[in-house]
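Lab meeting minutes (informal)
Scribe: AK
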Amino acid sequence: MYHYDVVVIGGGPAGMMAAGVAASRGKKVLLAEKNDRLGKKLFITGNGRCNITNACDLDIFLNKITHNKKFLMSTFRLFFNKQLIAFFDNLGLETKIENDGRIFPKSDKSIDVIKAFEKNLNTNKVEIKLNSRVTKILTNKNVIEGVEFQDGSKVSCNSAIIATGGLSYPQTGSTGDGYRLAKELGHRITDLKPSLVPLVVKEDYIREIQGLSLKLVGIKVLSEGKTIYEDIGEILFTHYGVSGPLILSASFFVSEEIHNSKKIYIKIDLKPDLTYEQLDKLLLENFNMNKNRYFKNALKSLLPKKLIPIIIKLSNIPENRMINMITREERKNIVTLMKEFTFEIIGTRPITEAIITSGGIDVKEVNPKTMESKIIKGLYFAGEILDVDAFTGGYNLQIAFSTGYSAGYYC
C-alpha cells in the first residue's frame, strides 16, 4: 500500500491551504479531490471575484462570526488576514481593499486565486489526485492508518485532513461526504441549516418587482415583534422573495427563528437617511409641485419605477386621484410605507442554494489550536465542515484559510 505522511480530503480553499502548508514542512502530501479540478466552489464565490478576506481588526472580525467564535482565537493568532495577504503576495497575487474592508484579487478574477494555490501546491510537490472520492477513513485503535477511495484502492497515511465543505452548492462537490466520514469515526454533527441564504416571502406581489436592486436601504427583521437583526446595505428582490448581501447576513438569524417556528417579518426602510418627518416634508414639497397631476405620476423622483405601483396599491389610494385631493393622513401613510415596506418571511431557500452551511463537526470534539480530533489521533478538520460560520464580507473564507493553515501546520 502506497504511503503518505498526510492525505488531505477536499481541494477547496481549506484543503489547498492545508496541503500546501503541510508539504512546505517536508511532509509527503496527497490532495484528493472528487471533482475534475481544484477550487470549484471557490471559483464562483463573490460572483466570480472571490472576496478572500476582510481587512478589519481581530475584535471586529470576531463580532462577525455567528457560531463558536472562541474556537477560532488560536488559529487566528497563528494565521490571520495580514498573513494571508502576505501569502498571496509571495505567490504573485495582488490584492485590493474595497468597501467595508473586503479584500479581493486586484484582477477581480477568482481563477487567479486558484492559480496561486496551484502554484504553491506544485512548488511544494503536493501530489494531486482528481476525480477521486474518499469513501472511508481507515483507523486502528482510534489512530489514522489510511484512506479508501471509491474505486476500492487504498493508501496508508499518518494523518488525514477532512476539508470537504458543507452541503451548499452540491454541484460544486459539497454533498456532505465529510460529515458521513466523521460520523462513522464517532464524531457528533450539529444541526445542519442553510446560512447566508435568500429568504422566501409570503406576499405574491413580490414577483412584480423581481430583479430590482436597492443599494442603500435599511432592514429590520422582527420575530414575534422583537427586533433580531437590523442594518443598512444592498438588497435584491427575486421571484420568491429577497436576496443580496444584507439579506444573506440577516438569514442566519431568520434561519434560527424559522427552526423554532416563529412568525417573522422584515421591514425595509427605503429612505434610511431621512427621518419620518424629513421624508414627510420632502413628499409634501413633491406634492405641492405636482398638485394638478395624478397620484401615479407623483413618486417618480422618490422611488424606483418598479416599486411605485406596489406602493400605490398598498396605500389604497386610486392611482388616478389628483394629488391635491390626497389627505394629510394618506400622505403620512405613504411615508410609513416607504419607511416600513413590510413582508412576512415564510422560509429560506434550500440549503443547496446557501452560500455556506451552518452547523457541522461539533467543535467541542476538536482541538482549537491544531484542528485535530479529540477522538481519533491523526484526524484533522478544516473549513466549512466545522460548526463555525460568519456573515458575508470575506469572513468565511478567512476561516477556511486559517483552519486549513492550522491543520497543515500541526498535522
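Next up, CB showed the second protein from the same session:
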Amino acid sequence: MRTDIVHIGAGELTYEIRNIVAVGEKLQELGMKTYWENIGDPVAKGEHIPKWMKDIVSETAQDDATYGYSPTRGVLATRKFIAEQTNKRGKVQIGPEDIIFFNGLGDAIGKVFGFLKRTARVVVPTPSYTTHSSAEAAHAGDRPVAYKLDPHNHWYPDLDDLEKRIKYNPAVAGILIINPDNPTGAVYPVEIIKGMVQLAKKYDLFVVCDEIYINIIYNGQTTLPLSDLIEDVPAIVMRGISKEMPWPGSRCGWIEVYNGHKDPMFEKYIQSILDAKMLEVCSTTLPQVVMPRVVTHPQYQDYLAQRIQRYERLSNVAYDCLKNVDGVLINRTNGAFYMSVVFDDGVLHNRQTLPIENPEVKAHVESLVNKPGVSLDKRFVYYLLGATGVCVVPLSSFATTLQGFRSTLLETDEDRFRKIFDTIADSIKIYLAS
C-alpha cells in the first residue's frame, strides 16, 4: 500500500492461550485426543449451570427492555447495586456514575490502555495475563515495562523491583495489580497490596486492579479488595461475571473508578474512556440486568462455595502430582483456577523430545519446534501435546523470560484431572532425561 496502515503496536498483540488451540485442532485432525487445559472457561470444561440460574436468564429475557440499548455507563439499577455492595465492604465510597460496563473485561482492558497517552506507561507484572500486557504494550508500541512476581516467594510481587521499574522509568504513570493472579494463581497478602498502593502514592501514579477472581480464594488464604486499601489514590478496579457465575459467553464486565475526581488529569482520562464507550452506544443489556438477581439468589453462595471447594481439591491434587518432580519449581494455587510451573534454569535445551507414536503427529510437531525463534518451553508444550494430547500454554507467552507452562484447574472429572497431571509429571521426567 502507498502508506503504512499497520498500528505501531500491532506486533505486541499476542494471545498464545488461543493460538495453541489451532495446533491442538490440527493434531485432532491427525487422530489425537486432546485435553484442553489452556483456557479459563469453566463451562467448556464441563461445569453445569444450575437450573435456577438458567430460569433467571430465561425469565429476564421475557422483558422487552432487555432487547434494547442500556445507558452508556450501564443499567442504572445494576450500577446502583454494585456501588452499594462496594460501599458496604470497602472504605472508599463510589456512586453509580463511577461504574462503566463493557463487553467483557477484554473490552475494558482495550479501552483502559488504549486511551492512555502513548508515552504514558503502566507497569505490569511478569508473568502477566496476556490481554493486559499485550494491550499495554500495543498502545505504546513497545515491550511491556514489568515488575517481577517471585516464584521463590509464592509468586508475590517483588516490591523492590517494582519501585525500581517506577523510579527509573519516568514514563510510568500507573501500576497494574492482578489479585488473585492469572497466570500464577497467587493471592496477595494485604501488606503487599498496601505496599503497592504506597508506591503509587509516593510517585503520584494511578492503580489498575483486575479483581475478576476476588471471590475465588481457598487453601486458607485471605486478601482484601482494593476498595479497602486504596486510600486517596486514583484507581480503576475491573470486575465481571465470566468466571464467578460463570457466564464467560455473556461478555459482561465493568470498571469501578475510585477517587475519580481527586486528580484533574485522571478525571479527564476516565472521561475519555466513557466517551469511547459512548461511540459504541453501550454494552449488552441482558447480562447486566441478570447479574444482581443471580448473585442475590438464596442458592448462589452455596453454589459458588461448592465450586471453590472443587478448585481447592484440584489445586492440591496438581501440587501433589508435581511437587517432587526434579527440574521444576511448583507453587500451590490459592486463588482463581490456574497453576504456573517453572523449569529450573538450564534444564531445557533444543534436543529434548517426547516419544510420539503417530508419525503424522510427530512430523507436524517437529515442523513446529524447528521453526526459528521457538522458545524452549514452547518446544516442551508442543511435544507434550503431540505425545499425550494435554494442551497447556507456554509460560514465556505471559510476558516473562521464565520458561515453563500454565495449566487450568477446571477439569470436572477429578479422576481424569489426576490422570492428566500424572501424565504431565511423567512427561516432564522423560523430556528432561532425553
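CB comment: The chain is about 40% helix and 15% strand.
No objections, moving on.
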